[in-house]
Amino acid sequence: MTGTSPLLSLVILCYRSEEFAKEFTVQTLRMLKNYEIDDFELILIANYFEGSGDRTPEIVRELATTNPRIHCQAEPKQGMMGWDLRSGLRLASGRYIAVTDGDGQVPIDDVGRLFGLIQMGEFDMVKTYRTTRADGWKRIFLSAGYNLLFHVLFPGLKARDMNAKPKILSRMAYEKMSLSSDGWFIDAEIMIEALHHSMRIGELPSEFRRLDRRSSFVSFGAIFEFMSNLFRFRFREFFR
Question: Which ranges carry the Glycosyltransferase 2-like domain (predicted)?
């Protein structure tokens, strides 16, 4: 690493990953080596609900002792995915900040491909969009409807698949954003902030794999949250 601030901070959301966090960290380090990204930090986010029996916190704390480039946060949760993601972004010190899920549903090589794209200097933020999905027709249908509604309410945003990760932001782009979502709406809020600040967004296609180790964390309550927040944030934009 050069100095105290790395070129790339990679925030990995590890909630309830348990033993898979080890495998995913190995995959990530291999990807960074393959793409010749040697100035980086990994930030493993393993916040937990007290009394849940989740072993992920102790696992990521152990991982952080094996490599000085690996850092972790494992604290009692005060929110859901949005709170985890925002806490990881606050810890990131890199010139570029990437965030991805640590469940293996998207290829970790996407981070390397996106990092090459944002380093070209043409974009403030880069992300993937899912061209193939193996998570079932219900999720595909809901995602299509959600993205359609997003574009109806925010027609100025020329991007696809709002919830897709990885996403990589320049530090300048991140520091312009005012993120507040504690729940599943955080990805959409990032996109709304990008639109508000007229950011240049680059995209690459990706695949979305089936997750067999556990059931999805996305509930019907989360779907209602998505929809209600879309209208709330659309109304908010009139007063910004």
Answer: 9-151
CA dist 240 and 237 (Å) reads: 5
Note the CATH architecture for domain 8-237: Alpha-Beta Complex (3.90)
Find where tokens 């944002």 sit. Answer: 118
Tokens found for residue 21? 């966090």
CA dist 218 and 20 (Å) reads 19
The pLDDT value given to residue 1: 43
Residue 41 has pLDDT above 90, yes or no: yes
Beta carbons within 8 Å of 238's beta carbon, 6+ residues apart: none
What is the separation of C-alpha 98 from the centre of its chain, rounded to a whole number of angstroms? Answer: 7
- pTM, two decimals, is 0.92
Using 50, 70 and 90 to split pLDDT, how confident is the model at 53?
Answer: very high
Peptide bond into 68 cis (omega under 30): no
CA distance 65 to 53: 22
* 184 φψ region: left (φ > 0), alpha (ψ -120 to 50), beta (else): alpha
Contacts of 235 (CB under 8 A, 6+ apart): none
Q: What is the DSSP letter of 65?
A: T
pLDDT, average across residues 142-158? 89
pLDDT digits (tens, 9 = 90+) for 190-219: 999 999 999 999 999 999 887 666 555 555
Phi and psi at 79, nearest 5°, equal 180, -170
| Residue 208 in tokens | 């979305």
Neighbours of 180 (CB within 10 A): 11
